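User: Before I run my own analysis I want an independent prediction to cross-check against. Here's the chain; please return only the structure tokens and, at the end, one sentence I can use as a sanity check.
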Amino acid sequence: MDRAQKERVVEELGQIFESSGVVVVAHYAGLTVAEMQDLRRRMREAGGAVRVAKNRLAKIALEGKPCAGIADFLTGMTVLAYSEDPVTAAKVVHAYAKENSKLEIVGGAMGENVLDVEGVKAVAAMPSREELIAQIVASIGAPAGNIAGAIGAPASNIAGILSTLEEREAA
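Assistant: Structure tokens:
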């Protein structure tokens, strides 16, 4: 890799570190090519991406970035998983690491916050953006349904009383 290519990689990594909601660092020693492709596919389907880069270049790209604290995690064979959604990358990597013991989560970063392994697991347990939106919509819609039920209730009560009176008169 010549100097221009290295500069391009450092620039790309710098953009990743700045624009990502979460970056997860993991060791992938022992993963086969097929397993790595499976991880990449899962991450892509979820809206994230996986990047393998030389640790030295990643450390250079981290200089001056909010998540510069993860430089200590960049040792050995590391893979970077990242996504704009602050939960997606952590969820996918955590789920994959449960299935495949060769992928070992080392840590990560969420903005300026450096996460250890337990921190990444905690982020993975959080609801995603879409799940939060669905919960908000449901909580907004519930009162409207209750109001509609309350408005309709007196009419159904009156109808029930009238039918009971009719049955009494008929008997």
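Sanity check: Helices lie at 3-19, 33-46, 55-62, 88-99, 117-125, 129-170.
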